[in-house]
Structures are given as C-alpha cells and as structure tokens.
C-alpha cells in the first residue's frame, strides 16, 4: 500500500480519489509542510501538493527533495503555467497535474513516482484512555509498557504520558524527568534519535516521555502529535501512550495507533462514560482499533462483565484484578508490578502485553453474566 500525504487540499476530492485507488492517505496543512523538511522527519511514499490556490511552489519542497530524495512529489495546479512548471522542475517536483483532475491521471502519476522504500518495519503504538479519572488507567498503561519492554529487547519500549497537566507516569516508574511531552511537541522540527534521547528518561520497563510538571496553557497541536507518534514508531518497537480523555485535539490525533484501549471499571457512571467514549472513538477510527480493558475487576460486583460488554458494545479484551495493596506498594517504590510476575495482577498485565504484541492470544476466563439491564437502556433513553 502506498502512503500518501495530501498537503494543502481545501476539499476532499484528492483524498477520495487516492483512497478509492487503495492508497493510505493522511492530510497535512500547508502551514505545517516544513515538518517534512527536517532530517529526522518520517516520510510518505508520495506527497501530493495542492497548489490550485497558489502560484508558487513552497520553498519547503526543495528542502524535502534534497534531504529525502526517495519522497515522490506530485503537484496539482489550476493550469500548466510555464513559470510554475519551471519553478516545480527546479524544486525537484516529479509530476505536475492540472485541472480538471481525473482519478486515472492521479493514479498514473502516483504509480510513476512511488518509490520502494527501505524494508523497515514501523513499530506498533498502543493507546490507553480512561473512561473516567482515578480508575487506574496510568497503572495499566505503565505496566503494559513494562511488560512489552521485556518482549522488545534490544529495541526498547517507549511510554508517552500524553497529558498537558496531571500526568503521573513518572511517579509510577520513580523518574524525575527534566523534559516533557511539551518539549517534544515544540521541537518536532528537530526530532532525530540523538535529540530525542535528551527528552526521554530511562526508567524501569523502558523509556519515558513524561507529562509536564505544570499545566500547559492552550491546546495541543494534532499535527505535531502525529509527527511525534510517527517518529516514535520509527525508533521503538512498541510505544504505549497514556491518553487524556478530556483533550479533543489529542483524541483526534491517534490515526497511527495500532489499537486504543478504553479502561473502565464496574461502576455505573464509569461504564456509561466508557460507552459514550467508545462510540466516539469507533466513529473516528473504526471498530477494529477499539478495545475495552477492565481495571480493578471484581467477580462479585453487581455489574458483571457481560453487563459491561453489552453497555459498551465491545467484548472485554483484558481483565486486571483488583489488588490495591500491591498497586500502592509499586507506586511508592517506583517499580512497575509487571516487572515482578509473581501475582495475578502482574500476570494479567503480561498476558495483555503478549496479546497486543501478537505473540499469542491472552486467555482470560470468560466473564460471568450480570443482571443490570439499565446499563443498556441508556441507548433508547438517549443518555
């Protein structure tokens, strides 16, 4: 499958044509084109630049072609103006198409310039988002990351605490980071392996890109989040992201993730919140990417596992038993439980990590049947 980045397109025509032809398409604003013009930037197979509202080729195209000659560039223009043709040729553009644009013309141009990229397998990225606060999402994310780290040697696992305020992953691994996710997002134009090493801290169970100590004012940039995730996948076999459920920009920037696990428990309000969150994420990313993980599970709870599944509309992919004493001890010592697999809870983290890594299937017991029908009645009541 050809990976195509469409730059500066004001409508969905080009994306629809490319998707129909089988390409994997992402969008990039023209203002963010310079992100691709960096030495460490991960490149698409082909960049389609929509210049139908402009008479000039952006200078960043020249830099991209110089630093990344394997990246094909197709320009779509209103007319085949001789001055634009000369400018495009000097910038290293491979193909220039003019309106009216047809699917056949675009497909042939993409086929001509697509280059077989080196066979390097991108790492896999897993997200964890809590249905509510305080239900153990960070505990799950940190411990699954630690378990994945044992599977990824010598290529370390990365844990990203994607909260602009209130992230606690550093506490869970006993780290005192100097830099944070904000520093990475503000320097996406500088990302390379050596610079990134200065931003992360080595912790038990892998590397950590921490949340900031102080709240960050203003929204996070989804385009920069995507660049960061792409970069992480280029150097780590596994990346685990603790995602903020309250930041819409973050939830809308998770296209590259292999899966997104919604962490819930057996409390009524949390299950209802998980159901709403699952519906939103399925609509944005499809059903296959969305998983449900049950934290602090209790087989004797009023709300059974099957009640949770019916309410959220997904099978439970992982069950993490409740063990408050061990979790608190691990937090106080700054060592993830998954590194010491001598109890049911740490074993459950390892099973889910193995499941995500694709080595085997996790074998949790089938959940028992519950009885709270009002969990599923919210759909007909509109709530």
Question: Care to describe what's here?
Answer:
- This protein has 383 residues and is of the alpha/beta class.
- It has 2 domains: 3-113, Response regulator (Rossmann fold, 3-Layer(aba) Sandwich), CATH 3.40.50; 124-381, P-loop containing nucleotide triphosphate hydrolases (Rossmann fold).
- The chain has 15 helices and 13 strands.
- It has helices spanning 13-20, 59-67, 82-91, 103-113, 137-151, 169-172, 181-185, 193-199, 222-235, 248-251, 268-285, 305-312, 324-333, 344-357, 378-381; strands at 3-7, 24-28, 46-50, 72-77, 95-98, 124-130, 157-162, 201-203, 206-209, 238-243, 259-264, 290-297, 316-321.
- The strands form 2 sheets. It has an 8-stranded mixed beta sheet with strand order 8-9-7-10-6-11-12-13, with helices on both faces.
- Strand 3 (46-50), helix 2 and strand 4 form a beta-alpha-beta unit.
- Helix 5 (137-151) packs across helix 14 (344-357).
- It starts with a strand and ends with a helix.
List the helices and strands and how they pair.
Layout: E1 3-7, H1 13-20, E2 24-28, E3 46-50, H2 59-67, E4 72-77, H3 82-91, E5 95-98, H4 103-113, E6 124-130, H5 137-151, E7 157-162, H6 169-172, H7 181-185, H8 193-199, E8 201-203, E9 206-209, H9 222-235, E10 238-243, H10 248-251, E11 259-264, H11 268-285, E12 290-297, H12 305-312, E13 316-321, H13 324-333, H14 344-357, H15 378-381
Parallel strand pairs: 1-2, 1-3, 3-4, 4-5, 6-10, 6-11, 7-9, 7-10, 11-12, 12-13
Antiparallel strand pairs: 8-9
Helix pairs in contact: 5-14
